[in-house]
Amino acid sequence: MIHVVTSKGANHPKKVMTGVEPVKSKIPELCKTAPADAGGLSIIKSREKELMARAPFPSNLIVFIGFCTLAIALFFSAIIFSIVPTLLPIQIVIFICLILVSGMAAIGYTLFLRSERTSYQAMALVEQQNLITTMAAQISTLRDRQNNLRRAYGEEKLRADEARNSKAAFLAHLNHDFRTPLNHIIGFADLMTHQTFGPVGDERYLAYIGDI
Q1: Using CA atoms, how far apart are residues 65 and 75, in angstroms rounded to an integer?
Q2: Of 72, 91, 116, 126, whose CB neighbour count within 10 A is largest?
Q3: What is the pTM of this model?
Q4: Which residues, other chains included, contact 44 with Cβ-Cβ below 8 Å and sequence gap of 6+?
Q5: Helix-helix angle 40-54:88-193, to 10 degrees
Q6: Domain coordinates of the chain in residue numbers?
């Protein structure tokens, strides 16, 4: 049982907990006094970092490939113009088409990578929810187990108290049952030793009475 004693001090009352009976139960580490985000949140964050590290993300490589493509196209256009000067309008049209195709390819690839990253983010969110659900179920199970252990401890303590009280009562009755007749026997042996009612008759009888 828990007794709360309230004592008023100079500034504010203080509550002192007395008579708290410890519950001797082996509860796993997850159910002990640990912060709510100490274990599960770190697992979720590490898993999210792992998934996001695997997720592709558009980088400067796309820009580099685009510039390289345009530079190569410009180089070959200059070579063709030096060989056949009359093809300048056709080269300009081809160069503009290459620019448009490169830009559209870069934009499409960027959108594709972003969609892939969005799918990885959704996967990470689903795994977070699954981890949170699993942890909540484990915590609920551990709390139920702790309550069962506390209840079993209380029942066993009551049984132990009843057994101790029964033992004390039995020893008290046994002591009384032995002491009452022994008082008469010891008193009668004392009378026989002093031969109050006459001689005993043989010395060995006195030795027997002395043993009593």
Answers
A1: 15
A2: 91
A3: 0.32
A4: 127, 128, 131, 132
A5: 160
A6: 57-149, 180-212
